[in-house]
Automatic annotation (TrEMBL):
Pfam families: Dirigent. It is found in: Secreted, Extracellular space, Apoplast. Belongs to the plant dirigent protein family. One of its GO terms (cellular component) is apoplast. Keywords: Apoplast, Secreted, Signal. Homodimer. Residues 1-24 form the signal peptide. This is Dirigent protein. One of its GO terms (biological process) is phenylpropanoid biosynthetic process. It comes from Cephalotus follicularis (Albany pitcher plant).
């Protein structure tokens, strides 16, 4: 009886020793993906980017040392923290912000184009704390254009989709208001 008990204790001990987390081990699990129901979400908001004024929401961080006098010569890099609002006026309710960088990437005489690497984060409502990642070329000259949504955080984890952009207002000194209609697939 006692022998059996000792044996049992040893078996338990070995089991615990073998299953205890070992931080130095490479491990993985791989199981069939039984897909949960996918949702589709449509979002509509306005994006405000201003490089001018007392409180710019975008700043030039680098540009090539050449004679191109334009506001965004090929190679210019801008960092932004741009508000997203419900309506086209900056005074309308702010529902999030777009953060990241964009790079002027058209070589003259090509039409202006920027490459956008932006995270659109929401700060109110259903998607407060969640964000969607856009990684896309943006032919800013075209009135209507499309950006790719390549991922997301929070409720937008694993998101993919697209954003349709429509320029609402342009100040040639360096400010734009753009209407975004976004469709994202996520879980
Ligand atoms: C910018 O270009 C000019 C003319 O080529 C050169 O003299 C100057 O040293 C350059 N400045 C920097 C910071 O590279
Ligand atoms: C959004 O979430 C943050 C963090 O959880 C919270 O502090 C804030 O009050 C929320 N805002 C709204 C408008 O729900």
């Amino acid at each position: 009886m006692e022998g059996k008990l000792i044996q049992l204790i040893w078996v338990l001990f070995l089991f615990i020793a073998m299953t205890a987390p070992a931080h130095s081990h490479y491990s993985f699990t791989s199981v069939p993906n039984v897909s949960p129901t996918e949702k589709v979400t449509n979002l509509h908001f306005f994006y405000h980017d201003s490089l001018t004024g007392k409180n710019p929401t975008g700043v030039l961080v680098a540009k090539p040392n050449n004679s191109d006098p334009s506001l965004a010569p090929f190679g210019a890099v801008f960092a932004v923290n741009d508000p997203l609002t419900v309506g086209p006026e900056l005074t309308s309710e702010v529902i999030g912000n777009a953060r990241g960088i964009y790079v002027s990437s058209a070589v003259k005489p090509e039409q202006p184009m920027v490459m956008m690497y932006l995270d659109f984060g929401f700060t109110s409502g259903e998607f407060n704390g969640s964000s969607i990642s856009m990684f896309s070329r943006n032919p800013v000259q075209e009135k209507e254009r499309e950006l790719a949504v390549v991922g997301g955080r929070g409720k937008f984890r694993m998101a993919r989709g697209y954003a349709l952009l429509n320029t609402f207002f342009v100040d040639p000194k360096g400010a734009v208001i753009v209407e975004y209609t976004v469709t994202v697939f996520h879980y």
